[in-house]
Description:
Elements: H1 2-19, H2 26-38, H3 50-79, H4 94-97, H5 99-119, H6 126-133, H7 137-164, H8 171-200
The protein binds protoporphyrin IX containing FE (HEM).
Amino acid sequence: MAVTGLCLVAFLLMHMIGNLKMFLGEGEFNHYAEFLKQDVLYPIIPHGVFIWLFRFGLLAFILLHMFSAVTLWHRAAKATPTKYETRKRLSQSYASRTMRWGGVILALGLIWHLIQFTVAPSHGSPFVAVKTAFQNPAWVGVYLLWIGVVCVHIRHGFWSAFATLGINTSALAKTVLNCLAYLVAGLIFLGFAVVPIAILAGGIQ
Ligand code: HEM
């Protein structure tokens, strides 16, 4: 759960930085999207092959992450058979209590996101597809909510991943880890949110 989760956070950071190329204009953004689809690792591997290796890798990480979640869910249910024990959940943070349903909303949003931008972009280039979508305030609202759910999930997930890997062994380490979790989640939220907001405000031409 920890390792796959951290790899997915790394993907999100990469995706977020890539999206910021929207500010550099249509030519730059489309060139970047085309490069990812065609030219990465060329000529070591043929044109267009890397993106499929990458997609299968990403899918494998998402499936492993979900499989781990279901396994842990079952183990937790077995370990706390009485309702009384679940009272302990009151001491958990909002993010930790919403990991499961947050994960489900994240996954459903991702399916929609892939349909909208990868499978059926009806407006030509990736730049035009993104720009057209976010001229509609409703889509900006939906995406901001979805990114918010993603970042609440990341805040707790980032913290628990490093706790699982044994980093939170002292009070100082816990504080640093907690700050880092807020920083990474906040950065990802702002980095993703700024593009739809800028498009709606007319700041990306
Ligand atoms: C405002 C925020 C976002 C924008 C504008 C955006 C934009 C895009 C675009 C344009 C593509 C298609 C690229 C192409 O096929 O040329 C894409 C693909 C993708 N996005 Fe996003 N995205 C956003 C947020 C997210 C988030 C939060 C996640 C994950 C939780 C995500 C996960 C993905 C994945 C997995 C793909 C498929 C990559 C592939 O085709 O290999 N995106 N996104």
